[in-house]
Design a protein that fits this description.
Number of strands: 7
Structural class: alpha/beta
Largest sheet: 7 strands, parallel
Shape: globular
Distance between the termini: 63 Å
Low-confidence stretches: none
Radius of gyration: 18 Å
Length: 219
């Protein structure tokens, strides 16, 4: 009897989680999660840094933020991406004041390398997700900012699942890359189902996704 009860409780938990996932995806894809109440305190923020052009775009997007409103800041960078590490450090050092010293750089495994096959990237992505699971659970940020690099997929997926389990209320803000004028990136095609805010920089993409937000070119 105890075994049967445990089994039934297990099915109930799974059903509740599935229902929660379906509810959140419906809420997100219909645009009902786009707006958030005004915050009265600083926002702990994860900033996903890719490599190359993604890094340049993200740093240009955040360089004019009031950093004291987004603290602590956690920069997520792929392991061995020395160039992005140096660029982030330079930005923070240039903006350093008594109010915005609270930043950290987190290195995680790449979910997909340039030129890597989609089949093999499934396994590397799973590894990255398992790697960031304890990190995401510990941080549970208020906001995640990302603009398309594969590095952001594990962080966003894990944070979304934690939200489904009522363990956090992280908002995911995805900004499609400036170079995407006609089609969505692979990351965009994935995150359009779990990102609370989906921002595009070209009207042609806004026309392809009703809930997308077009507020002009940000670069």
């Amino acid at each position: 009897m105890d075994g049967q009860l445990k089994l039934e409780l297990g099915f109930l938990v799974v059903a509740l989680v599935v229902a929660r996932i379906a509810y959140l995806i419906h809420k997100i894809t219909t645009g009902h999660s786009r707006y958030a109440p005004k915050r009265q305190k600083s926002c702990s923020t994860i900033i996903c840094i890719g490599s190359g052009g993604h890094t340049t775009e993200m740093l240009r997007l955040i360089e004019n933020l009031h950093f004291n409103n987004y603290t602590p800041r956690y920069y997520v960078i792929a392991k061995n991406d020395v160039t992005s590490f140096n660029k982030v450090t330079s930005l923070e050092e240039a903006r350093k004041s008594s109010l915005n010293k609270d930043y950290f750089i987190l290195n995680i495994p790449r979910s997909r390398c340039v030129g890597q096959s989609y089949v093999s990237s499934i396994f590397t992505t799973i590894y990255s997700i398992l790697y960031v699971l304890p990190v995401s659970f510990k941080l549970r940020p208020d906001l995640i900012l990302c603009n398309g690099p594969g590095t952001c997929i594990p962080i966003c997926v894990v944070s979304f699942l934690l939200k489904c389990c009522f363990l956090c209320e992280t908002r995911i803000m995805f900004i499609e890359s400036f170079c995407r004028t006609q089609t969505f990136s692979l990351t965009g095609k994935i995150l359009m189902y779990i990102a609370d805010n989906f921002i595009v920089q070209w009207p042609s993409l806004k026309a392809k996704l009703k809930r997308a937000e077009y507020i002009g070119q940000l670069m």
